Amino acid sequence: MSLEWRTEKRSFLFDNVGGMGQTILIIHFDSETRSVESASFAWQNRPLTLREALEKARRLENWLMMSGFELDRSSSHRRFALVDDYQSTPSGASDWSAAEARLSEDEQVSEMILYRMESAGADIQVSIQNSRRKARDFGSRTASTLPEGYPRSIYDGNGGYEWQIHIWISGPR
């Protein structure tokens, strides 16, 4: 399935959404005002490689910039911020190459907010998750143990197809 997002001036097509074995699209709807407050989804229909996920994020960022969106530069919304236990911290990455290196080399990084952008009509956040690392981290927090070499998740040993790109769009703050 594909989702089309329309702003006042332009539209963007999120192609191949769904099929990741999870909720495809979450919409928060205000029943009093009868309007959509936010929508979130994984922009893919299969696990992605790191390069595929980052290419999608950069393509969307370029479209957003051409559509009048600006990077959210508040201290609580840092670009390339690491997410751990629902809190974000600076990653040390200052550009796309450094972010890619950090994601691919650091086994402790399971999620990174790539950017947050805003316009008069909407706010958007784009993040990337490594499903294999998240499954490993979840397993390490539970009492479950597995035999040596036993795959902890479906993403283990799959040739790098373990990344998810998440989109969250909301009305302006």
How would you sum up this structure, described in words?
Helices cover 22% and strands 32% of the residues. With 173 residues, it is α+β, with helices and mostly antiparallel strands. Strand 3 (25-30) and strand 4 (35-42) form a beta hairpin. The longest helix has 17 residues, at 50-66. The protein starts with a strand and ends with a strand.
Set out the fold topology.
Layout: E1 3-6, E2 11-14, E3 25-30, E4 35-42, H1 50-66, E5 70-71, E6 81-84, E7 87-90, H2 96-105, E8 111-118, E9 123-130, H3 131-141, E10 163-170
Antiparallel strand pairs: 1-2, 3-4, 4-10, 5-8, 6-7, 6-8, 8-9, 9-10
Key features?
173 residues, alpha+beta, 8-stranded antiparallel sheet, two-stranded antiparallel ribbon
Briefly summarize what is shown.
The protein has 173 residues and is α+β, with helices and mostly antiparallel strands. The chain has helices spanning 50-66, 96-105, 131-141; strands spanning 3-6, 11-14, 25-30, 35-42, 70-71, 81-84, 87-90, 111-118, 123-130, 163-170. The protein contains three helices and ten strands, in the order E-E-E-E-H-E-E-E-H-E-E-H-E.
